[in-house]
């Protein structure tokens, strides 16, 4: 794949991940603002965000990892693709080889938008459901 195609493909995946996380894929200003809120390094410009969205550039690996974490997608999928949808990779999901459905990716994005207190409540609730499911499975 040539570099132009790589940039365009990255742009398509970034736009899809933004949509799945309920962000507009058409606003470089919003992308730059949301990115800079989360990134501890040097902030990006609106121009840089626009270049990512229109397929003129690909972010550095460090920036790409942060975008992937923020949007709840695997960094390798965001950079290279290779799966049907944004949640099909295994990086960062806690279980090697596990695959997320699109609804799962959206749920992760929603969780990331909660304040820390509510995220903790959601984690505790999910852990409780997992324990209940595990106990039920052991009874069979």
Automatic annotation (TrEMBL):
Domain of life of the organism encoding this protein: Bacteria
InterPro entries cross-referenced by the UniProt entry: Cro/C1-type_HTH, Lambda_DNA-bd_dom_sf
Organism: Massilia phyllostachyos
Protein name per UniProt: HTH cro/C1-type domain-containing protein
Domain HTH cro/C1-type stretches: 51-78
